[in-house]
Amino acid sequence: MKIEKVEVLVSSPDRNFVTLRITTDDGLVGLGDGTLNGRELAVASYLENHVAALLIGRDAHQIEDTWQYLYRGAYWRRGPVTMAAIAAVDVALWDIKAKAANMPLYQLLGGASRTGVRAYGHASGLDVPELFDSIRKHQALGYKAIRIQTGVPGLGSVYGVASSPTVGGKRYDYEPARRTALPVEETWDTAAYLRHVPTVFEAVRNEFGPELTLLHDGHHRMTPIQAAKLGKSLEPYDLFWLEDCTPAENQEALRLVRQHTVTPLAIGEIFNTVWDYQTLITEQLIDYVRSAVTHTGGISALKKILEFAAQYQIKSGIHGPTDISPVGMAAAMHLDLAIHNFGIQEYMQHGDATNEVFIQSFSFEDGYLHPGEQAGLGVTYNDEAASKFEYQGAYLPVNRLKDGTVHDW
Ligand code: KDG
Ligand code: MG
Prior knowledge:
- By secondary structure, the chain is α/β, with parallel strands linked by helices.
- It folds into 2 domains: 103 residues, Enolase-like, domain 1 (2-Layer Sandwich); 256 residues, Enolase-like C-terminal domain (TIM Barrel), CATH 3.20.20.
- 35% of the residues lie in helices and 19% in strands.
- It contains 13 helices and 18 strands.
- The longest helix has 21 residues.
């Protein structure tokens, strides 16, 4: 089964997506997600100009060999652009292999280890009453696990909080990338944040009781000692995890955080390879691996990372915001269903335009996702719908402290 055609599809239904479509000589079609938020065209160009020609004529069944060929063969390893491009190829080939086997992809990954995949959604509010409304809306949708982000008094806009909870007519969605010529700049104050967040969790626990599963994302904004302080101050509210508490490049930083708090830690949405996790996993400095299939070289690579993590009782928490396309989400769901050390799956829900372009087979019922039983990933790409949504440049915001210093966003 030879690869005959490779297409890089860029569309912007609700937001930008980069999709790779591979067609074999016997007519099987596979999709892969290569979306890198705010840098989409870099991956599209990498695929179009440096990868597509290498794939033509290759045996579509040789997924591992193709992965190694693209990773080792480029000489320049790792990095989000390279690994998103490799992920797109890897996932498209898994889609094809599963279609050739006439099985849903999870069957090829070892079969189902559970009946459904527990998902968490994003509740947010500029203040606590707005947050409570958002939590109730999520509960009404079936979510049993909810990430909590709120505005911080004195700061205009804050990570994870929509400036308007009904942007684009949608319920609650928070889309950090903005279609502006230059990145939007936000203002940050870590001390104000550290004072405010525990009061929010106290209010949420008092209102919603002890059983609701709560998560929080620190978005790389703290120093290790600040993160330790936050983790400790959140202990009474029993978080499922505190995510990305410190900048992710320095694995050693998590040692200090770990020494001071038993709040579980999750990290890794901006990691690309197993090497980013080496110390974190072997020293058991984290509890959850946050990588996306899309940014970690695909199913082949993330499965290996998760199997390594499993030896240290570390579980999965695969990244699933709206900048992971429905193709990347489907890949995540198949992997979630198959692996033993599944933890939780982030699920933010795409908008109507996205669902028009990507026809999907997954279900979400009573807080649990299932990828469905279609052969392959269970996603098809609607070219006609996609042609209505041309690429539009968009940037993630940039963060500055009150004195103008650039800070981690
Ligand atoms: O592209 C950046 C977003 O995916 C990120 O800001 C979302 O932190 C995020 C999360 O946990 O989903
Ligand atoms: Mg995050």
